[in-house]
Design goal:
With about 625 residues, the protein is an alpha+beta fold. Among the domains are: about 305-425 and about 485-540 and about 560-610, 2-enoyl-CoA Hydratase, Chain A, domain 1, CATH 3.90.226; about 435-475. It is about 30% helix and about 20% strand. It has 18 helices and 26 strands. Strands 13-14-15-16-21-22-26 form a 7-stranded mixed sheet, sandwiched between helices. Strands 2-24-23 form a 3-stranded antiparallel sheet. Strand 14 and strand 15 form a beta hairpin. It starts with a helix and ends with a helix.
């Protein structure tokens, strides 16, 4: 149920950092290492060059941050594109050609930018490695690797004599996340090797893996590579139908970008890069990029729950129904009169919420896993009900949005209204001045009925389109004035009076991107609370598919503008934008290997100490 501005924003674009965050159920027994088998003939040199040129033209026309990137990184895109284009002359296979395309896109330093193509072979060893305290530690290990002595928490030292640091230099030539810290998480490609990274394609059937146990003892294991296809994926965590309230909820598939209410662009953005961690479920045994968007905190465990005597809580159904009706009206900016109240579903979504005592105070903790719920209104009503129900007894609030891959801009703003007793300056974006934006705005306006089109809201949409047209004619890359997806630069407090008025601590990290950047941005810009953790990724603009390349049929997805928080004085500098900057914490915390191996007790204590100061 998505009404008012949500229908409008979906008809335009979303700001999702798309990540496939779990593993398929099928396991692969294939362990053959060899040359890629082309399903069809490779692209000819002329076809590959035509695709490359089409990609370059689309970037020059439709990529919003282009001039921003040139200023920031000190290059001219046209020159970079021409230099890299020359490498196509020696590229033979489709994978070789695709790697050249990726090398160019890497220059944009933009985790929203991606190029999808039919996935070829991948060479896998079923374990994920993540960066921790300057080391690379196994965060998830398939039980099939237990006979080799490999376990979660071990440190990876080398594969076939190559260190993770050296491998990362190669990986980051073709793939990326956002900033230098989040880029280090791309090390998972060391054991999940896509064939379009030619330097990583194994030349032998077995990998020689050296790792160190927590006691410092070094171990060498000889493990076979598994050559897989999209239909054959190694399952990291065995499936179980058992239900336990102490375990995290399964990571779900709400991360696909939505367009006009339908899931689309499912291979866009980080899906292409994170397909090694695609699937239906991950548990608390996994702590890595595989947990992006998971319902529960990525670091959570039964051990933490018991140690801090945490009690899981749920909102009262009657309160949820009451706030559901209020949020329906709040979100429907087009309707001249209140609509007939709706009814909440019989089964409410899973929403992670907890109470516990620390330092003599009561803490309410809420998890916001991503900003693309199936039903915005229901989720907002549930958060409102929790606040009304538990604010009288809680002294402070923790909002965990770590590992948050983003979502819909207007839902993110609405969530922020819950913590803004005096209202807030909302989310705005400077749009790329192109016909795609112009026609989308005009088409939306012409699709309104005469009464709605004549309202203040309808008139504003038309004005936005005309302003974009004027800016385009003036030769500007971005619009002079920012655009609000909710059509309100300044938003009121959440409806119904259920607004949090006590201290707020928001948990962030380097795997918060896009919408996961924008919520902490709003918190910081409006002084709604403190931020704790590590700088967010810095994915600062809406993203959409802009073209299918004519011969390979690969889909190019580009960032379409630059976003920031609204400023009443209208003065915006490059440092105000989220793109490449991210959002810095008020209180910094970097995870340690000890944190990781001890189940994050020290981290959660530091969080709780800060929240109860």
């Amino acid at each position: 149920m998505m009404r008012g501005p949500f229908l409008f924003v979906q008809a335009l674009i979303t700001i999702t950092l798309i990540a496939g965050c779990s593993f398929n159920s099928q396991t692969s027994d294939t362990s053959v290492v060899g040359e890629q088998s082309e399903a069809i003939r490779p692209l000819s040199q002329a076809e590959a060059t035509a695709d490359y040129d089409s990609m370059v033209a689309a970037i020059q026309s439709l990529y919003g941050p282009l001039e921003y990137k040139e200023r920031r990184f000190g290059y001219k895109f046209e020159s970079e594109a021409a230099s890299i284009r020359s490498k196509l002359a020696t590229a033979k296979s489709d994978n070789d050609k695709f790697s050249v395309y990726l090398e160019l896109l890497r220059k944009l330093e933009d985790g929203h930018v991606s190029l999808s193509m039919p996935i070829r072979e991948r060479f896998e060893i079923p374990a994920i490695v993540m960066p921790v305290e300057g080391k690379f530690v196994f965060s998830t290990v398939n039980p099939s690797l237990a006979p080799y002595g490999l376990a979660k928490g071990d440190e990876l030292l080398s594969v076939d004599g190559v260190t993770p640091e050296d491998a990362l230099k190669t990986i980051l030539k073709y793939t990326w996340f956002a900033n230098a810290e989040s880029d280090r998480h791309m090390i998972f490609y060391f054991l999940f090797r896509p064939s379009y990274i030619p330097e990583l394609v194994p030349t032998q059937e077995f990998a020689q893996i050296e790792f160190a146990k927590p006691d410092g003892r070094k171990v060498m294991a000889r493990i076979a590579w598994k050559k897989t296809s999209p239909q054959q994926r190694t399952e990291l965590v065995p499936r179980s139908d058992a239900s336990d309230e102490n375990t995290d909820d399964e990571a779900n598939s709400h991360l696909a970008e939505k367009f006009l209410g339908k899931k689309a662009l499912t291979s866009a953005t980080l899906t292409e890069r994170l397909q090694a961690v695609q699937a239906a479920e991950m548990t608390s045994d996994s702590t890595s990029v595989g947990d992006m968007g998971g319902d529960g905190p990525w670091y959570w465990s039964p051990k933490l729950k018991k140690k801090f005597a945490v009690t899981m809580v749920t909102p009262e159904r009657e309160r949820v129904q009451s706030f559901f009706n209020l949020w329906e009206r709040e979100l429907d900016v087009f309707s001249p009169a209140p609509s007939k109240p709706g009814k909440i579903p019989d089964t409410l979504p899973n929403l992670w919420a907890a109470l516990y005592r620390h330092n003599g105070k009561t803490v309410l903790m809420l998890r916001q896993p991503h900003y693309s719920p199936d039903d915005f209104t229901v989720n907002l009503a549930m958060y409102s009900a929790l606040i009304e129900q538990y604010q009288p007894i809680a002294d402070t609030l923790i909002i965990d949005q770590t590992h948050n891959p983003g979502g819909i801009a207007t839902y993110t703003e609405s969530f922020a209204q819950l913590f803004a007793p005096k209202g807030l300056n909302g989310f705005v974006q400077f749009l790329n001045t192109d016909r795609l934006w112009f026609t989308r705005l005009i088409n939306f306006w012409t699709g309104l009925d005469a009464v709605t089109a004549s309202t203040v809201t309808g008139s504003r949409i038309l004005s936005l389109a005309k302003g974009l047209e004027r800016d385009s004619e003036a030769g500007l890359r971005l619009t002079r004035n920012p655009f609000s997806f909710s059509l309100r630069e300044v938003l009121p407090p959440a409806p119904g009076g259920a607004v949090w008025t006590k201290p707020v601590l928001v948990l962030i990290d380097e795997l918060c991107g896009s919408g996961g950047d924008s919520f902490p941005m709003l918190v910081k810009a409006n002084g709604l609370g403190k931020l704790f953790g590590n700088r967010t990724s810095g994915l600062g603009g809406s993203v959409e598919k802009v073209i299918d390349l004519p011969f390979s049929r690969s889909s190019l997805n580009l960032t379409r503008g630059l976003f920031t928080a609204f400023k009443a004085d209208g003065q915006y500098a490059d440092s105000d934008f989220v793109e490449n900057n991210g959002v810095t914490p008020d209180v910094s915390y970097l995870h340690t290997v000890k944190d990781f191996r001890d189940g994050f007790e020290a981290y959660f204590k530091a969080v709780s100490d800060e929240a109860t100061k």
